[in-house]
Amino acid sequence: MKKMICMFLALAMAFAATGCGSGGDAPAAGDAGQDAEEIVTELSGPVEIQFWHSISNQVHLEILENLVDEFNQTVGQEKGITVVPTFNGSSAELYSNVVASIKAGNAPDVTLALRPYVADYLQTDYVVNLEPYIQDAEVGIADYEDIFAGLRQADSSYEKEGTYSLPIHSYSEVLYYNVDFFEENGLTVPTTWDEMMDTCEKIHEITGSPAFGWDNLAGSFMTLVNQFGGRYTDQSGNLYFAQEDEDVALEVLNLWQENVKKGIWRTAGEDMFFSGPFANEQIPMYIGDSVEASYIPAKNPDLNWATAPIPQESSDTAANLCAGHVIIALNTTGDAEKAYASYEFMKFLTSYEANLAVVVGGTGYLPIRQSVVDSSEYQSYVADGHDFLTAGVEQSGYYYYEPAFTNSTTTSSAVNSAVKTMMQEVADNGVDPETALNNLKQTVGLR
User: How many domains are there within the chain?
Assistant: First the structure.
């Protein structure tokens, strides 16, 4: 954990030392277009855009490459923009390569990213603020509010003021359950945590085994903290759960520990994910990412399963963790025309047509737009054996992203890892919740 924190802090110092920070002498490309009148919305000549990504799945890769080709032949041809896509390894490898390219001054114009990575890139001035483009009367995204509110909020929820990313590949957490088991035993899918406790007790009486699990331990902690009326963190790195809302954090930790001791909950442990134990009918329900749906049929094609929205504590505090790739523009040279060209490509990749192609193409990702959900093409796709996607979309009204930050003390990624360790201590090793929380505080530098 300490190595992880040191790595991110060293990165921030390296950016500053090489002139990439806000105090450096290099052009502050990320600041170009802070005011609407400063942005460029026309090109004086042809522009080539380098687009780095981490998509290796062949089904998804073909869709992405087709979208790039379509852009080049339509919007790109009209405006004089050519996009060159490049696979740059896994998400982690892509991140490392982008960091190196930023320090070298030759970063890609557009790149896929995870939100914690964007927080790191924002330690420089080279991430393009998209807000002036989005709001521009001529080139703006007229249907921007068609994108789900939680996703739009995340675009502007970094420590720097502005809009620095757009959602592109989205997924959320859903409740997976064994339909035959539930029907054979007269069980109802739980919608609240009280119902969940009751259902787990009944299942345990039937099987003598754990009834429920949650793939993402850190995610389960932050979701339950939010649902129980507390706060996790924010984009400035305030660790509310370990300070002002410590009582809610302890409530969540005690809930997990008590249910594991009762034998009705379990962690994934060596299985890593519950899709295996679920497919093998070792556990009848669990919460996992919606994209996991593609793995279950391969492990047990005869299993009759479905998805449902995750339980909520109350409608006032409803929360569902959403994640996935975002897309950002980088500009290390201060070229305002390239910044605009990058935006046009990003606008295309997050459009209704592009999002529809992604979600009905077998990628497992969810719509980012209400218009896609309402479309006849999507509804037909869902009805044709893909109804497991519905549960994720039904929760779009209370999507939230894990806050992303990098500061002088820690990072959101480091806190996430520390929370996962804390949860494992409590759930798997029987460590007292208060002790585990104090251990986390020491790890992240609060004590």
Answer: 2
